[in-house]
Amino acid sequence: MILEGADVRLNYFVTGEGEPITLLHGFTQSGRSWQEVVSAMPAGWRFVVPDLRGHGETRLRPGAACTMDACATDLEMLWGHLGVDRTHLVGYSMGGRLALHVAARRPERLLSLLTIGAHAGLEPQAREGRKLGDQALAERIEKDGVEAFVDYWSGLPLFAGLERRGPSFVAQLRAERMKNTVAGLAASLRGMGAGVMEPVWDQLGRVNVPCTFVAGQLDHEYVASARRLAASVPNGLLAVVPRTGHAIHQERPEAFTRVLAAHLAGTRTSEEDSSSTSA
What we know:
With 279 residues, the chain is an alpha/beta fold. The protein has a single domain, classed as 3-Layer(aba) Sandwich (Rossmann fold). It is 46% helix and 18% strand. The protein is built from ten helices and nine strands. It has helices at 35-40, 68-82, 94-105, 124-144, 146-154, 167-177, 182-192, 220-232, 248-251, 253-278, and strands at residues 2-4, 8-15, 19-24, 45-50, 59-60, 87-92, 110-116, 211-216, 236-241. Strands 1, 2, 3, 4, 5, 6, 7, 8 and 9 form a nine-stranded mixed sheet that branches. Helix 4 (124-144) runs antiparallel to helix 7. The N and C termini lie far apart (43 Å).
């Protein structure tokens, strides 16, 4: 489905009935990357799944921003269109950073928060180098095209765990990544890369909803980030999934589905406890 905004044609899909869960994908992916998880979840949930700016079938008007703030505005537009007041928010990698950005800036819109392989911004000494690196990657995409970049990106050690799913699954992921555009991916790196993201660590104390921060056991840097995130919010839990790397929901979707289901069950327990306390 398409939702027209002032500077964006936002592509998204909605499936299921129940409390809303908004799913935010990673860099080079699209909302389609969540379909395996959605299909494995029990009934009783309404999944809201957009293609973020620069990705999938979402299209920007010339000169439109491709930033965390612009994506957050898109989400609020989408939630308004669908009549969603508050939502469970789940994000992976780049989408996890966006989820943290939204949680810090608009905590009243959340029922809960779960991120996979995410952080809330780099330290100042690391930001400039990463910004230069992302700029170089954007120029590489513009010079070599999507196919060459997808082959490079898919071969990073960060995603080595996906190989265990077999060649047909890897080929499917590559085909999905190939549907992106040069302009979209380059704009996303320049406007939403980790180097340009404004850190929100010091704002996470405002996020009072249940939070779970997930990382793969083999993804050591992000295990540390998940641990720090869990300590940064009032109701934070750490979940480390064994034998997985960065893309947990795709490397071991059955294991991730259990983590997500437990997280959501915990939010209902929290609501029941709150109601009992109020009574």
